[in-house]
Amino acid sequence: MKKVALIVVAVVMGFTATAQEEKGSTLTVVIENVLSEGGTILGGLHTSETFMKSGGIMQKAVPATEGEVSFTFENVPPGTYAIMVMHDANDNKRMDREANGMPKESYGMSGNEMTMGPPNFESAKFEVNGENQEFRIRF
């Protein structure tokens, strides 16, 4: 009987330790200047491997409202990341572009550096080290 009790305690402690290890940081993202209602604000948390190649390792979609819109990424493990957001005004789940390749829809990223040419991971990256963080992004 003692053996069974010890096994149960060990299993429960294992689950508890694992649950504590999985808990990461909360990243709050505030988009400051959504210019119109309608459509969806799409956000992606990226590593250097996913930046400009996919939706990211975590995604969020929230209804667009004029003014400020916010969302959170929860349980983010320590590492180097970048955040990209866009206003998908027509809800087609992709960035619409002009004939010359320029984006038709508003977008932004962590670091808020909007240079000519495509965004790059180096200017958008930040470190997650266990602390909760807030990012204010402008389109």
N-to-C span = 64 Å
Low-confidence stretches: 1-6, 15-20
| Rg, alpha carbons | 19 Å
The SSE string, one letter per element, is HEEEEEEHEE
The dominant shape is globular
Q: Which whole number gives the mean pLDDT?
A: 87
Number of helices: 2
What does this structure look like?
The protein has 139 residues and is an alpha+beta fold. The strands form two sheets. Strands 2, 3, 5, 6 and 7 form a five-stranded antiparallel beta sheet that branches. A three-stranded mixed beta sheet has the order 4-1-8, with no helix packed on it. The protein is globular. The chain starts with a helix and ends with a strand. The N terminus is likely disordered.
Short précis:
18% of the residues lie in helices and 39% in strands. The chain has helices spanning 2-22, 121-124; strands at residues 25-34, 40-46, 58-63, 67-76, 79-88, 107-109, 126-128, 133-137. Strands 2, 3, 5, 6 and 7 form a 5-stranded antiparallel β-sheet that branches. Strands 4-1-8 form a 3-stranded mixed β-sheet, with no helix packed on it.
Secondary structure elements and their pairing?
Blueprint: H1 2-22, E1 25-34, E2 40-46, E3 58-63, E4 67-76, E5 79-88, E6 107-109, H2 121-124, E7 126-128, E8 133-137
Comma- or semicolon-separated keywords:
single chain, 139 residues, 2 helices, disordered N terminus, 18% helix, alpha+beta, three-stranded mixed β-sheet, globular, five-stranded antiparallel β-sheet
